[in-house]
Design goal:
InterPro entries: NAD(P)-bd_dom_sf (IPR036291). This is Saccharopine dehydrogenase. It comes from Streptomyces zagrosensis. With 337 residues, the chain is of the alpha/beta class. It folds into 2 domains: 158 residues, NAD(P)-binding Rossmann-like Domain (Rossmann fold), CATH 3.40.50; 161 residues, Dihydrodipicolinate Reductase, domain 2 (2-Layer Sandwich), CATH 3.30.360.10. Helices cover 33% and strands 29% of the residues. The strands form 3 sheets. Strands 3-2-1-4-5-6-15 form a 7-stranded parallel beta sheet, with helices on both faces. Strands 10-11-12-7-13-14-16 form a 7-stranded mixed beta sheet. Strands 8-9 form a two-stranded antiparallel sheet. The longest helix has 15 residues. The radius of gyration is 20 Å and the shape is globular.
Length: 337
């Protein structure tokens, strides 16, 4: 599909937005991109590095984002926290596909309501999942080995030196302020937990156990509804990653544990780690790029107007191919903890 207008990436000179733009440039060399940020010099440097890209400044307090009326775009990507939701409104009023990654489960209600009120206007991809949906997609790919899934447990280690740029750190601070409770699915019921129930040990790839806790994250309802699993939990620990303990860069580590029944109906369990030696940044960028590619119709059928999540639009097997392509690896883990 030819794109004559540009993808507007709000926060495109930041870590997640910039790396997503670089992936899109690699996959689709002729795709026009617009890097939008508050610092025009930084945005222009990014645009120059990408090629076939322009740079603009934006004002998220304005409904027109401070952009000239004669500028036209093919999609809007919010790779930062837009507390006025003006990026979404800008996309809706112009009928443009929209993607966001920073609302999180605890802040998503205003975005959902705004999207629902104009559901006919444009496709909206809500990707405020861990790494913009990359973990959900990797889990769903692993789930193909089971005929029935009873339990999903995701255990993630975020290195304290790998919390992203200022925007990423601000997201984590807001989410932790909003709630210290975790959201799990237990026996088919979405349940808030706190106190001792929220605490969890998270085991790193080298066997080191870090203290963590269940968190309220969109991965839980996405995986529960996509698989029908009655028990879903996402545990999260911040600490030194296995990569840094080896004297290398901060690494990305997510353990995916699945329990259920295999093709013959017998009990079946599988456990594996999704690892990247360069931390969470490449995976978050990949999640964004996969979403943009899909929204633009560069892969797959046209996306209809309405509210979407990553697993409803993106093929998990294709996502895993792209994960491996950017240097992620899957490592087997012992089933018994």
């Amino acid at each position: 599909m030819e794109q004559s207008t540009s993808v507007l990436i709000l926060g495109g000179s930041g870590q997640a937005g910039g790396d997503a733009a670089a992936l899109l440039r690699r996959w689709h060399p002729a795709l026009p991109l617009t890097i939008a940020g508050r610092d025009i010099d930084r945005a222009q440097r990014m645009a120059d590095e990408l090629g076939a890209a322009t740079a603009v400044t934006i004002d998220l307090r304005r409904s027109d984002l401070g952009l000239p009326a004669d500028h036209h775009y093919s999609a809007v990507v919010a790779a930062l926290w837009d507390d006025h939701l003006n990026g979404l409104h800008y996309a809706q009023h112009r009928g443009l596909p929209y993607l966001s990654i920073s609302s999180g489960l605890v802040e998503i209600a205003p975005e959902v309501v705004a999207s629902a009120q104009r559901a006919h206007a444009t496709p909206v991809l809500l990707a405020s999942h861990y790494c913009a949906g990359a973990t959900v997609l990797a889990t769903l790919d692993a789930a193909r080995a089971l005929d029935r899934i009873d339990t999903i447990r995701i255990s993630a280690v975020l290195d304290e030196l790998d919390t992203g740029g200022p925007a990423g750190r601000a997201d984590l601070e807001r989410w932790s302020t909003a709630t210290s409770a975790g959201l799990v699915r237990r026996d088919g019921v979405f349940t808030w937990i706190d106190g001792s129930a929220v605490q969890a040990d998270v085991t790193s790839t080298d066997g080191t156990v870090l203290p963590g806790q269940s968190i309220a994250i969109l991965d839980v309802p996405s995986l529960a509804h996509a698989t029908g699993a009655p028990n879903v939990r996402f545990d999260f620990a911040v600490g030194e990653s296995a990569g840094r303990r080896r004297g290398e860069a901060a690494s990305f580590e997510v353990r995916i544990d699945l329990e259920g029944a295999g093709p013959a109906g017998a009990p079946f369990s599988t456990s594996r780690y999704l690892v990247h030696p360069a931390g969470q940044r490449p995976l978050t960028a990949l999640g964004i790029a996969l979403g943009v590619e899909r929204l633009l119709g560069l892969r797959g059928e046209a996306v209809p107007p309405g509210i979407h999540t990553p697993e409803t639009l993106i093929d998990p097997a294709y996502a895993v191919e792209r994960l491996v392509e950017i240097g992620a690896v899957f490592v087997g883990a012992q089933v018994n903890r």
